[in-house]
Amino acid sequence: MTELIFHLAEPSAWARAVAWGAYAADSLATEGFIHASTAAQVPRTFERYYSDRTDLVLLAVDPTGLDVRWERAGEDLFPHVYGSIPTACIELLGPYSGGDVHRVGATYS
Predict the structure, then answer these.
(1) Domain carrying residue 96
(2) Distance between CA atoms of residues 42 and 5, nearest Å
């Protein structure tokens, strides 16, 4: 299996994805891609952009078959997903409020 990538999502966006069968963050319309992170990058992304949020959920994405491009943002390379993500490629790990992604949800190891 390819290494998972991760995305912090609003619960309402995840609920829409489940109903529609595919996830599309607002950034897909405004920037042309969905921002994602590696497991190691998630805590820094959360602290930089979402530290005041307590309602986000963490999604684990299997990037196999998706148009994922690794692009520079600052000094790091981040995975950007060009296109919507079928929900079959996503596992909802659970609420996220910072810290190690390995502690979120019961199934990610």
Answers:
(1) 5-100
(2) 9
Structural domain contains residue 69? yes
Model pLDDT for residues 14-53, shown as the tens digit of each residue = 999 999 999 999 999 999 999 999 999 999 999 999 999 9
Model's pTM, two decimal places?
Answer: 0.90
Closest to 4 (Cα-Cα) out of 96, 108, 97, 88 = 108
CB 37 within 8 A of CB 45: yes
Assess if residue 109 is contained within a domain: no
Structurally, how many domains does the chain consist of?
1
pLDDT, tens only, 48-80: 999 999 999 999 999 999 999 999 988 899 999
Encoding tokens for residue 99? 């810290």
Q: Quick one: DSSP state of residue 62?
A: -
Q: Is residue 12 situated within a structural domain?
A: yes
In a domain, 50, yes or no: yes
